[in-house]
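Folding Task

Wanted — backbone structure
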Amino acid sequence: MKRAIATAGVAALTLGLTACGGSDDKSSSGSGDKIKIGIKYDQPGLGLKARSDYKGLDVDVAKYVAKEMGYGEDKIDFVESPSKQREKMLEAGTVKMIFATYSITDKRKQQVSFGGPYFVAGQSVLTKADSDIKSVKDLAGKKVCSVTGSTSVDNLKKQQPNLVPQQYDKYSECADALASGAIDAMTTDNTILAG
């Protein structure tokens, strides 16, 4: 069944796909000669787990960086890194690095070290094709989803303070809520929405 969803091209801010690591380098976050790297599991084209295979730009960049550090692909353990848990995972040493859509902000720079950006994306809004939402002003009173730990809804609230924020743990949950009509729109990097 095909979902009738189209983008309403609402650019808000430039966001980057980045690699980040903890501010200290005490833990290898690996088991023996392996390295644990955080990625998203539900972002087609960027970071996607398909059965036991990992695909996407973030995965490819992670493999390249790991190789440069001396870790072959067979030495990488990919770990799901939801937006709301990224800083905690790095701080706890659950992962050595995270390759994922991650806005570089001054606040986040105080918590983690960034390497990048290696890809710059814009923020957009995704709606159903038959939606009456055509611009940010049309989001007044509308339920707009992004994931917990993302800055996307906060960015839109600066332009449309009357939107109704909705948060889910994963972007795929936002997409399902949009398809079912539980929310009116979702917002994040345009590269995630394209997937």
